[in-house]
Sequence to fold (607 residues):
Amino acid sequence: MRKLVLILFLSVSIAGFSQYDSLNKLDEIVLYGNFSPEFNTGYTVEIITDTIINNEINSLGNFLQKNANLYFKQNGNGMVSSISLRGTSASHTGVFWNGIPVNSSLNGQTDFNTLPINSFDGIEIRKGGGSVLFGSGAIGGAINLSDKVLFQQKAKAMILLGGGSFKTFKSNIQGIVSNEKYFVKISLNAISSENDYPFKDTNLINENGQFKNYGIHSTLGWNFDDKNHIVLHTSFMNTDRNTSRTLTAASNSKLINKNNRFLFTWKNIGTQYISDLRLAYLSEEYNYYFDKDLLNSSQNRSQNLFSKYSFNYFFNKNISLNTGVDYTYSIGQGSNISNISQNDIEVYALLHHRVFSNLVYNVSARKGFSSNFEIPFIYAADLNFKISNNFKVKANYSTNYRTPTFNDLYWEPGGNPDLKSEKNSSAEIGVDFQNKNAKFDLTTFWIKSDNLIQWVPVTADFWQPKNVQKTSGYGLEFSIKYKKIIDDHNFQFQAQYAYTVSNDDSIDKQLIYVPYNKANSNVSYNYKRTYFNYNLQYTGKVFTTSSNSQSIEDYWLSNVEISQNFLKNDLKIGFRINNLFDENYQSVAYRPMPGRNFELNINYKID
Fold:
């Protein structure tokens, strides 16, 4: 704790000192932090805004599958959902909340079915190795869930209500009040479902699949003056769900997750600098009941105190230096983890340089220290070269890492306190083309990882994690967007495709649950107050055994939505058909997903 106090004192002191700079506020600054396109000129960065987010009530995983062509495996509808980005595992994608890492300290992952999209104003997706800027785990990429704070005169509310098949009910209520000095946003969300869909071509139904998620999120901001503002973010989420049966076995188990998050930010903006201080408290707790009718459960919990200070100095219009220090104090305890603690401190620096009007590059490095293991020195470089007004070339190279989790180190029985951090190298090169109506993006990438942590059998009934696996991979990503407006007719088309090879080098086989092919497309048409969208998703075959002897077949999913606006566009009523052609498919072996199902959504805005 003495280290924590020292880091916080230094951070506040630096931030406070910068207040006395007599310089005026910067005229134009990109304020996205480490997800800013300015700091990621050689990477693929996609930003999804609230205009798209608030079109539906959905979990984050289902939303990203539809809109960003990301691959998720789900243990049945509404159950645990984990991401695989560029062929990496769920613990190799960094997930952030307003710039603060929120992956579990216990298993290093995020369950995307526990996160409602409507509580956030933006989603930033940054693909490729990013450990220098984002820390442990950002090997396949990183995702940031952001809240937008605008100090302007505003008062509005939004009510989203939905209902659908399998007795599913959804709701989200938001309210925003702000002026030049204050900003207040409150968001309430809830979803519940009997989730008792039939398993197609069998006599079974999805027994024990009931779930309910609810949460409250708030953002409170205070604008001191034209240079300083502070924001307090809070988030309380509870997920209570039974765990569905499979094709081969019934289930009577239950899983309850609780996540509480607090984040305080202080941003100070001068003529040539941005000073940013973030202090956070994150807690997570889960209770697993093997038999929900009994009181006995396995309970584990972690708590994290996180502080981050970054200072971005602009030498001139072409050169800037972004530096930062991160400190984390973590505690883990529970049925399978004894009371343990961990201290991590990391520092990084990034130099941004626009050499010419058409050539920009970044070079960066990071080094960390932990009380429980070694954190390697890593570095990265990226560039963006504009060949013409419409055509760009981008490239990057990075070294990355992932540290062992509490479960890896201390799980009883089996934890291995002698584990080393995973190491990774990755590179990519791509081209972008954009004009008034169209945007085209083509990227190729390469990834190689060493010391990957894998749980392996020591005896017939005892498993332990070891640094044994080496993997390598490569792939190609393609996206195209096109829009055309003719009078009151608005046409839009978007298509994305990814080819991914992710190889276990020890046996020369494709890693499990990594599809070679993944594609997604959206065709939409808007005429005055009427909107139509057709979404088509393709997921290629995935192997379910390391020997590649067993697999889940590929599948196509079609989803159709039509909506109509009323009351000067303040009221929107939409109807959606999911899995239009009643495809029989599985995301995880022996866990069928729903067939054709329906949703009715009502969106009412008050300004």
About this structure: The two ends are 47 Å apart (CA to CA). The chain has five helices and 34 strands.
